[in-house]
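ugh ok fine here u go
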Amino acid sequence: MAKGAATQVKSDNGWLKVWLDGKLVRYTTAKVPILTHSLQYGSGIFEGMRSYDAEKGVAIFRLNEHVKRFFNTAKVYSMDLHYTQDRISKAIIDTVRANNLRSCYIRPYAFYNTDQIGVSAYGKDVSVFIAAIPFGAYFGEGREKGISCKISSWHRINSEILPVEAKASGNYINSIIANTEARKAGYDEAILMSTNGMVAEGPGENLFLVKENALVTPDKSADILIGITRDSIIKIAEEVGIDVDEREVHKEELYTADEVFFTGTAAEVTPIVNIDGIKIGKGKPGPITKLLQEKYSEIVAGKNEVFENWLTYVK
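structure:
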């Protein structure tokens, strides 16, 4: 079974630093009350992005798009972050630089800094932290060899229940229970269906199929998170001449696809070679998946001039 990347809050220089409410502090001194509202009720919001050791230096992938989505999530939940997008972008760069990290995972997070009992958060103080940690391949060797997935008995939440295009902590209870079910059954990851019976996404990943040398991916009607890596792969595919069809996807299409893969900040481009015990294609990563993996790796390494504007360098 593929294993997720471990979080490391220590580097060779000791404890990492995090940015908390405008100051860089050591990880072990960044403390909040144990009854913090966002721990009790899942009311925090977050983003996930990566930096890479690129040819011209440390580069954060699609920083502006991630920060914009962070602020859009805050808007949906009526959270006043007290900072501008430019200030948060600078804080992210400062945090990566302060920890002398090259390839890392970056987690901006906003939470209600109150220990009051009760679900109401309106008007409560909001704190923001940014952490940057060393991070490897999310699915370990599965990124190269492919992973197995189980179609979950749990359905993806929809916009009548919670704002699905907002990255809020509480949304991911849905992801956790689906992933736990899949792991207990011996699979690496889950695939969730929408409440209207169509393929949606993974617990933390978007999903693509390859059919007759074209890409197919679930559209908004499946209540997916509109992933930034998903958007990147669509644009990369179009650049190399691969057709992309965003539409409803039936479950059985997964079993008969030539290739299937996940995309996401953590997952990057990860092949899926088995679903519900059914071999996908030839049971190994296919040529289009490999091509998109290679192009994605070139871009984040700063080796592709067409998409150079997706990189923000840490100087």
